[in-house]
Amino acid sequence: MTDKCDLYLTGKCLVSMPDMADERFADTLIYICSHSREGAMGFVVNKKIKEFSFADLANQLPINTIYPVEPIDLHQGGPLEKVRGFVLHSTDYIKPDTVVIDDKIAISSSIDIITDIAFGMGPKENLIALGYASWAPMQLEKEIANNAWLVANPTPELVFRTKDEEKWQKAIESLGIDLTRLVSKAGHA
Fold first, then answer.
1. Listed residue (48, 7, 15, 9) closest to 32, CA to CA
2. Burial of 187 by CB count in 10 Å (0-12 exposed, 13-18 middle, 19+ buried)?
3. Are 116 and 93 in contact (CB under 8 A)?
4. Nearest in space to 15 (alpha carbons), one of 178, 130, 173
5. What's the pTM?
6. Mean per-residue pLDDT of the chain
7. Looking at the DSSP assignment, which residues form a beta bridge with residue 44?
8. How does residue 3 score in pLDDT terms, banded at 50, 70 and 90?
């Protein structure tokens, strides 16, 4: 019997289909940091928070900065626990709480990484997400089978360096898909 872990999507990206029914996930790209029999967890990586800044975040935390904090985008990581912060980042920065997803991307959630980013000592590449998305056991698999999501292989270029407003389209293009020919309804023979 083969283990289903070969099908787990840790380290992959979910690309919402153009007709995503759940408007919270319309045109989203989600980096999956954990997927197992127990469910899945990930972060929307292409939706900026406009009403709250990194400087606001630093001011709410016990981070004393002498100089003004450089503008850093915050992202809507997902609809759950929107006040909880996570940092997706390059693997050049590893601390005891860091979870390494693969050889290029890791995740941390301590105040230390926020402090290090504020002082310019954090990871070379990072994406700060407030909140997260999660799925119950087999929920994500069902959503994929019902054509809610496509699965793409992320790159640091896509996750960290591509403009947020271009990430969804770039992920679709990386799959070699022409959106004008994409049909979201599955046929059954």
1. 9
2. exposed
3. yes
4. 173
5. 0.85
6. 86
7. 30
8. very low
